[in-house]
Amino acid sequence: MRILLTNDDGFYAPGLRALRLELQKIGSVEVVAPASEQSATGHSVTLHNPIVVQEINDENMTRIGWAVEGRPADCVKLALRELLGYRPDLIISGLNAGSNAGINVLYSGTVAAAIEGAFFGVTSIACSLEYTKPAPLDFKTGAMLARQIIEQIINKKPAPGALFNVNIPSLENGPVLGVRVAPQNISTYEERFDKRTDPRGRTYFWIGADFTCPDPTPDTDTAALRDRYITVTPLQYNLTELARLEEMYSWNWTL
Question: Residue 16 in contact with residue 3, Cβ under 8 Å?
Fold first, then answer.
């Protein structure tokens, strides 16, 4: 199995490094990832600047992949259209530092990279490791758990272009209790902004790191993560509201 590995934390992120080692147990892995962190860039792409690409080798001068001075979606586009020279069997995005559950999937560069892979008709899986305190994360265990979930997904032979979002609960809070298939939570998150003044007297705001969902809808991904379950959510990128579409066909449009 040929696997393309990407992320939004950057080519040298410890989560990507740990997941690469695990994925090598199930196939050959090439990395095409941002040269620097691109968290919360969503599905943006680079239009007005050149995208510099650098080939990266290991200590034996064997190619690991390419570091791309662009967004996660840029990485997947370039990998499939220019860099790899073949069509991968699987695209994995992660292992992200921090969960990408609930409405976070709309901001996530990790999920955006997986969506881009699905655009091309390749089974794509976004993988993230939740954290609840700013401490070194156990990426080794998180990557092992992610690989186990990935193997089970691909063993079910999903249709080409199938898209999945996997979240592993914070390992600081105790052992993982199991796996739950869950829909995306759409409850509002709490956000806090620090209001500050710069040396020239101008007001600016800095978003806080505490981005939590205090009241998740039961039986959704964020609720399951809170209860220490790995969550697996099938996603789709067609944003059409089909029920309203049917209603709007009957509207009497005039100019």
Answer: no
Q: Is residue 112 within a helix (H) or strand (E), and if so which, with residue range?
A: helix 109-119
Segments of 35-146 assigned E as strands: 53-57, 63-68, 90-97, 124-129
Assessment of whether the complete model's pTM goes beyond 0.90: yes
Cβ contact 213:185 at 8 Å: yes
pLDDT tier, 61 (very low <50, low <70, confident <90, very high otherwise)? confident
Tokens of 40: 């919360």
Is 124 a residue whose pLDDT tops 70?
Answer: yes
Handedness of CA 197, 203, 204, 209 (dihedral sign): positive
Q: What are φ and ψ of residue 78, in 5° steps?
A: -65, -40
Checking phi first, is residue 42 left (phi over 0); if not, alpha (psi -120 to 50) or beta? left
Task: Identify the weakest region by mean pLDDT among 15-19, 95-99, 130-134, 196-200.
Answer: 130-134
Instruction: Name which of 166, 169, 73, 59 is nearest 115 in CA terms.
Output: 73
Angle at 107 between CA 15 and CA 132, to 5 degrees: 50
Fold topology of 2-184+217-248 = Stationary-phase Survival Protein Sure Homolog; Chain: A, (3.40.1210)
Helix (H) or strand (E) holding 253: none
Q: Mind listing the pLDDT tens digit for each residue in 198-212?
A: 999 999 998 876 667
Domain extents for the chain?
A: 2-184+217-248
Query: b or e along 85-104 (b: 16 or more beta carbons within 10 Å of the residue's beta carbon)?
Result: eeebebbbbbbbbbbbbbeb
Q: What is the DSSP letter of 134?
A: S
